[in-house]
Amino acid sequence: MNLRRDVFQAIADPTRRAILLLLATSHSMTAGAIASNFDTARPTVSKHLQILTECSLLKQEQNGREIYYHINAKKMKEVADFIEPFRNMWEERFNKLESIMKKYKSK
Amino acid sequence: MEAKTKVHAEDGKQEIVITREFDLPLALLFKAYVEADIVEQWMGTKVLKLENKKHGSWQFETSDPKGNVVFKANGTIHDFIPERQIIRTFQIENTGFDAQLEFLDFEALTADTSKLTMQIIYRSVALRDQMLKLPFAQGLNMAHNRLQDIVTKLK
Question: Domain Activator of Hsp90 ATPase homologue 1/2-like C-terminal, which positions (chain B) (predicted)?
Answer without folding.
Answer: 24-151
